[in-house]
Amino acid sequence: xxxxxxxxxxxxxxxxFMKVAPIAAELARRRxxxxxxxxxxxxxxxxxxxxxxxxxLGVGEPDHLLEVGxxxxxxxxxxxxxxxxxxxxxEQPDLVLVPGDVNSTMAAALVAVKLGLPVGHIEAGxxxxxRTMPEEINxxxxxxxxxxxxxxxxxxxxxxxxxxxEPGRIHDVGNTMIDTLVAMRxxxxxxxxxxxxxxxxxxxxxxxxxxxxLVDGALLADALLAxxxxxxxxxxxxxxxxxxxxxxxxxxxxxxxxRLHVVEPLGYLEFLSLLADSAGALTDSGGIQEETxxxxxxxxxxxxxxxxxxxxEMGTNTLLGLVPERIAEVPALIEQGAGRxxxxxxxxxxxxxxxxxxxxxxxxxxxxxxxxxx
Length: 374
Ligand code: UD1
Fold this sequence. Notes:
Blueprint: E1 5-11, H1 14-29, E2 34-40, H2 51-56, E3 64-65, H3 73-91, E4 95-99, H4 103-114, E5 119-122, H5 134-145, E6 148-151, H6 154-162, E7 170-172, H7 176-191, H8 193-197, E8 204-208, H9 212-215, H10 219-230, E9 235-239, H11 242-251, H12 256-259, E10 262-263, H13 268-276, E11 280-283, H14 287-295, E12 299-301, H15 310-313, E13 317-319, H16 330-335, H17 352-362, H18 367-371
Parallel strand pairs: 1-2, 1-4, 2-3, 4-5, 5-6, 6-7, 8-9, 8-11, 9-10, 11-12, 12-13
Bound molecules: uridine-diphosphate-N-acetylglucosamine (UD1).
């Protein structure tokens, strides 16, 4: 009998954990076929950004923790690369899996491919076509060095084909982040976070904003003022990312913090429970655009573009533009039924990880085979 295939997954940030959790569970279930090693780069390190997710999602302790922490993009990327290389040499995986589009994703993909290890990219093919976003660079680089491109929406295939990717590398498997939501749904629904916080279901707006384009410049102050206006019509709940919190502190929030219910980052279950019972979400996150589409909750995205256009075309997402003044329109847009006629995209139903495992079980896992040099 052949030995199990050793799959090594690299996570680093909050949104990575939800994408890899169902794969870790699936590979553990199929332990005759697979042996799974989990590496956490430590790009996110606060308990509220990391530990709570690993615990809630049942991922358990990573096998390796690289503790790279914060820094400039170059520093963070370089630290992941330096510290991951000896781990890959030691573990000798058959394939390295990287999810999403964060610095850890790109860094890990580069290290693996340079050691001659095949890479599988989860959430491949998404493009905002905005190269000022660090995530866009990370996506393009990770895709270009990955043998297996796991996609979850039709435009991802079109984007990859337009870049000259061989069709055989592309696998339409569905959305592993939605796998996690489906698996956790009973616990999410049982939590009743709105009531616990004293918010009336259907009468509050959940806000998350953390992108550098908004938070690291003058637009944050405008966004907060616009939110203060919204708070006159609709309760606002704002779990703030550490980066956002630091920028808010620098602005001197004063009484606004309480008016907007600015709270610490929430755990997965609590956040999703709040989201599921909300009137809508205002965000610049990628994952929340997808989660709201699945939940049928109106989403308003404060960005000029989205790498997830299917959430606008099919789902509940409205692209507001990076125009803080437009935040004031949100209560009226919700009132008018924005996003209510949405559908859930195909294969966003909870079985993406099983499909990924099937591909991993059957694929020829050597770089040359897929690169066409075999
Ligand atoms: C990163 C990702 C972004 C993703 C987001 C999810 C990149 C380029 N960006 O952005 O795509 O949407 O994660 O949250 O990889 N900090 C803490 N504690 C932590 C983590 C961060 O205090 O646990 C603070 C630090 O001040 C740090 C700042 O947040 O400098 C930014 O963290 P960083 O990992 O560089 O990027 P994010 O903004 O979190």
